[in-house]
Amino acid sequence: MSSEAPGVDEALLRSLIPATIGVLVRRGADFAAAEDAVQESLLEAMRVWPDDPPRDPKPWLVTVAWRKFIDATRSETARRRREEQVESEPGPEAGPALDDTLQLYFLCAHPSLTPASAVALTLRAVGGLTTRQIAEAYLVPEATMGQRISRAKRTVADVRFDRAGDVATVLRVLYLVFNEGYSGDVDLAAEAIRLTRQLAERIDHPEVSGLLALMLLHHARRPARTRPDGTLVPLAEQDRTRWDTRLIAEGIAILQQALTHDRLGEFQAQAAIAALHADARRAEETDWVQIVEWYDELVRMTESPIARLNRAVAVGEADGAPAGLAALAGLGPALPRFGAVSAYLHERAGDLRIAARLYAEAARAATNTAERDHLTLQAARLNATLPVED
Amino acid sequence: MAKYLLLKHYRGAPDPVNNVPMDQWSPQEITDHIQFMRDFATRLESTGEFVDAQALSPEGSWVQYGGEGRPPVTDGPFAETKDLIAGWMIIDVDTHDRAVELAAQLSAAPGAGGRPIHEWLEVRPFMHEPPAVTE
């Protein structure tokens, strides 16, 4: 649906997708067929609505999707017993124990799916993106993405649609989508925010709010994060007037509300750190002491070496570079970005020659070109100030 | 139209004329180099000749089937002497001459001192589909 039809509220249309799939599933359609039928009904909506907008979009969509499903089922052979089940008028829908939209989130993030499959299925079935759009966003051929989605649908075909799943798995999927950023004509970060927002409207869970807050606070910085030539601008050097204050205010409000539940989780802790950065109008005003405390929480909760690495940076700011370097103890070069952090802390400690060498090494180990170029630049910046070694 | 691969090497190609490691350039020279590469790709897009560009990490290893029921055999990291691909650009152009012309332009990317690097690039034609008309 990249080509926006005039007169069609695409955001509204896409927000109706999960509930429509849910209705079809509860009427007896299997998930894969229901999802196909709803995609078809969307195309029809894009075609028909500009000239003939429905009075009430959701029943329109359900009716058309159901018809598409019946047509598809009929056109398959009568051998399938499915036909008998659904040919007759749909029986009264079993009252949904849970919100249909919510069910779909759980299904698409089901633990039996690989992360890549869960991401693809979520973007298509919950997000309503076309296979082509998802393929473009992940830089794979459309046929490949189509197969990935089909296999994912088969994997969850027998999952029951009437019991709650694990919120944590859903959050991991949404976090992955957000981190993919944007390429092609689909802004995956914006899409992840939309999906997380939609989830937060349906479930009162502090970690859902925490993730939403985290996304908003990071998204707010995006305009300042890269230069026009694509190179990265580190947090301390970003033009903070270009941060989106509306997103920051919203993120902080959501986070504060979440924290009142007193059920801390890793996304709330990460959001709290992002909020403390957002609070500082100038980099020098950053409350590093509080940030270290949040990293302590994060390390305690997750025992993640990445959290410990980031904590070392914060310790370096709060208590000085030697303390930061000491906080690196036990972490090693196998950890992504270890070299970059170590270089940074050595530079702050005044060991410029070591720092330059570590930056150059970190550049060689970088896993994306923006980071590689940034680290090469840091090495060059220091080398330009150092007397030439014989 | 025919597709060509322009292959850039970390190691294994003959030394370029302006052979200074990138972290020894000035920051401005690095910025200019990055800008040159971006502009080059953008220009090829506008002429309808750009297909793809990718960079590879220097990390990697050799992998071989280890036999029935055995794990794969791996060998790495690559030896210092090994030819090492850094990345590529794929172009779709009318003639071989045009492919060479573009490779030469890319090889003129500015390096230390703002002077062209004169990097050696490998130009390789793609194998293509057999023609529909054969006689």
Q: Which segments of chain A are poorly predicted (pLDDT under 50) over 5 or more consecutive residues?
A: 87-92
- The side-by-side strand order for the widest beta sheet of chain B comes to 2-5-1-6
Largest sheet of chain B: 4 strands, antiparallel
Q: Radius of gyration of chain A in whole Å, from Cα? A: 25 Å
Pfam families (chain B): YCII (PF03795)
Family (chain B): Belongs to the YciI family.
Domain YCII-related (chain B): 28-110
Protein name (chain B): YCII-related domain-containing protein
Describe the structure.
The complex is a heterodimer of chains A (390) and B (135). Chain A is mainly α and 390 residues long. Among the domains of chain A are: 10-14 and 16-87; 98-188, Arc Repressor Mutant, subunit A; 308-390. Helices cover 66% and strands 1% of the residues of chain A. Chain A has a two-stranded antiparallel ribbon with strand order 1-2. In chain A, helix 8 packs across helix 9, helix 10 (167-179) packs parallel to helix 12 (206-225) and helix 16 (305-319) packs antiparallel against helix 17. Mean pLDDT of chain A is 89; it is low at 87-92. Chain B is of the alpha+beta class. Chain B has a single domain (2-57, 82-125), classed as Alpha-Beta Plaits. Helix content of chain B is 24%, strand content 27%. Chain B has helices spanning 27-46, 96-107, and strands at residues 2-11, 50-55, 62-64, 73-75, 84-93, 122-125. Chain B has a four-stranded antiparallel β-sheet with strand order 2-5-1-6, with helices on one face. A two-stranded antiparallel ribbon of chain B has the order 3-4. In chain B, strand 3 and strand 4 (73-75) form a beta hairpin. The longest helix of chain B is centred in the first third of the chain and has 20 residues, at 27-46. Chain B is flat and about 55 Å long.
